[in-house]
Please model this.
Amino acid sequence: MSDSAASAAAALLDRIQAPEGSGREIPDAATREIIGRAPVDTVADVDGAIARARAAQPGWEALGHEKRIELLLAAADAIDANAEALSYVLSREQGKPLNGPNARFELGACSAWLRANAAIATPGEVLLDDESTHAELVYKAAGVVAAISPWNWPLMITIWQVAPSLRMGNAVVAKPSEYTPLSVLALIAVMNDVLPEDVLIGISGDREIGARLSSHPDVDKIMFTGSTATGRKIVEASAGNLARLTLEMGGNDAGIVLPGTDPAAIAQDLFWGAFINTGQTCAAMKRLYVHDSIYDDVVAALADIAQSTPIGNGLDENNVLGPLQNKPQFDIVSRLVDDAKARGARIVAGGEAAPELGELFYRPTIVADIPNDAALVQEEQFGPALPVIRYSDIDEAFAWANGVDVGLGASVWSSDPEEARAAATRMQSGTVWVNSHGGVHPMVPFGGVKSSGYGLEFGAEGLKSVSVTQVVSGPARKG
Model:
């Protein structure tokens, strides 16, 4: 990365970070050096932000779809103009490398998602149109949206929440994770260079701030991506104000490789389905079930890729895997892999930390010959460790895959795509991919079942989710 991009990143941080001697210090995920100071907002700050958003929202909605679309496109252009600086901040704060499906990829997704939301036709439909009655279903802004985003894809998921909300005329108060506030606040600052004042406000703080957002009487809609435990607390907190909810929570995605599949043909896609963002992705593949007839070949192919994939500091242009973002997550991965070892599972790649790279680095790990009831299989590891479970009976494989209380994504792999599509319907998850895992598209709805949450994002369904409905019914229209 050029010196000019680093200088631009420093200028962005100067715009949003707390003054010297205040705020909370944020470390570089790879080196643990301090990169900036995040503001620490109070409950009173949250109340003020919501009041400002509430005051700004009617004027924003009154602009109409055409003008809002114009401004969303301008915001996308602003992100693109600052993409290298934002990528630099993101790589240091979150840990993901610049290259590969990582920081630059995430910034590209941010502007692409804004443009996609601008292009979606405004939802609404004629329900009845006969000789006596004309009835229409219309979608109007909900009001003030609280957008609470996680630390793994902090910018992209913020945009997933913000883009449809703004498109439909809502004002948004966005709270990033306390682990990755600087990159999100910098993104919001860039967008606010073109957006009207107070239609998008960023706040920074701990769980007390999130709790106030969730329970505030002037919040009309809450969009949350994060853990199931936190999601449950948001449901409880929102009961008093009856805010509408979209919850995308934890997952433990399973992949099933059917017999007769060519291991060499799917190995790269299997690997990246599990290890994208160093495994720190809600809809990454967390468990892989492989038929006994090809099990050893799949395991060997995955091990070869794991051992040859460059890992290290994200600012090194050669690396495509980085550290775990934070110490609690590093400890979870270490505990689950150590438990697998204690149960006699076979470590065919990785299986240990990489302290020579930094405090939070863990080698890409493939775990074979592990029972389905092992903790590494049953719990979401959210990191660079993939358990590969052997099966011989396909019905048992589907029973194992469905035998957890979450259902975000899943995948089925086969040399016969039609066979895989037929098998996919047996998976209990919001999305099932065939011969891939984890890919999302701004026009294709996405959401979970079971304890992975409820509500849909993306596409026309995503616009509807941040709206309230109104039926306008009256006499038949003349002519």
In short: The mean pLDDT is 97. The CA atoms of residues 291 and 391 lie 5 Å apart.
